[in-house]
Q: What sequence folds into this?
């Protein structure tokens, strides 16, 4: 069961927890005239919130924005939102086809679940539309493999996808009771800090303000992969996710673990939270 607080307002992009460089990249991407921008992560990782924040940022009277969602989680003023209903043949794919006859500037598809949906989304981007959607994968590079497995031609993926963002949600340390301590050498290695300099990080304690949990609120950690010409070449060559990941890291992509580690070092969250929600990978900072 999903409980939605309709009284809350849609968050802005700066409220999501992105670091400054990722925020600048995100702002550039959502103002592109066409292309497919995908957000990936497990259920409950804040994908829809991120896409709503993006739409709210670019929403203006001169832009026609259409969405097909399942369900429509929040009403966005000035945006035409449609609820998917397979019982009456209103699917993501059928709605996308109808949208293309209405000449929109921006389209949001709640989720890419099958080949038909992704092919229409790709076609929409190639005909001058900016398309936002979500997909379920563990990280950004493996999304290319997922789309290929759906039966989409690699050259179509390479020519339409402009960026993929993986994300997770972390609990934020309670500012009233978080306790500083010196990180151990093992913890520093887990954070990717290898310069031999000691670091002060924080841990949860618990107080009446946070209900004894040590945490208040949540923030995202993000892995933003920009699709460059070199990445496109790998996708068209049907390279595996590991090869794409290596190139993306070389070009400046931060993994989920690295972004989480940065938030530990600035005192936003604890190392236990980062280790809980990210997979064990090699990180260098």
A:
């Amino acid at each position: 069961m999903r409980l939605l607080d309709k009284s809350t307002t849609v968050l802005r992009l700066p409220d999501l927890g992105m670091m400054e460089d990722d925020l600048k990249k995100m702002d550039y991407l959502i103002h592109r005239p066409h292309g497919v921008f995908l957000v990936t992560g497990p259920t409950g990782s804040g994908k829809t919130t991120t896409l709503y924040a993006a739409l709210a940022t670019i929403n203006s009277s001169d832009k026609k924005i259409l969405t097909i969602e399942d369900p429509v989680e929040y009403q966005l003023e000035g945006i035409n939102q449609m609820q998917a209903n397979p019982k009456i043949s209103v699917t993501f794919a059928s709605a996308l086809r109808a949208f293309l006859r209405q000449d929109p500037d921006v389209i949001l598809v709640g989720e890419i679940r099958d080949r038909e949906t992704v092919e229409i989304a790709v076609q929409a981007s190639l005909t001058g539309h900016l398309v936002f959607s979500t997909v379920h994968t563990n990280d950004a590079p493996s999304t290319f493999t997922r789309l290929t497995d759906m039966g989409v031609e690699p050259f179509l993926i390479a020519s339409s996808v402009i960026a993929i963002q993986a994300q997770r949600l972390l609990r934020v340390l309670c500012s009233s009771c978080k306790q500083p301590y010196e990180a151990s050498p093992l913890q520093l290695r887990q954070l990717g800090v290898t310069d031999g300099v000691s670091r002060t990080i924080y841990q949860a304690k618990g107080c009446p303000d946070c209900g004894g949990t040590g945490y208040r609120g949540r923030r995202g950690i993000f892995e933003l992969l920009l699709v460059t010409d070199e990445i496109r070449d790998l996708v068209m060559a049907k390279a595996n996710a590991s090869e794409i990941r290596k190139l993306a890291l070389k070009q400046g992509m931060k993994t989920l673990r690295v972004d989480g580690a940065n938030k530990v070092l600035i005192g936003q969250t604890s190392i236990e939270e980062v280790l809980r929600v990210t997979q064990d990978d090699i990180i260098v900072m």
In short: The first helix runs from residue 20 to 30. The mean pLDDT is 92.
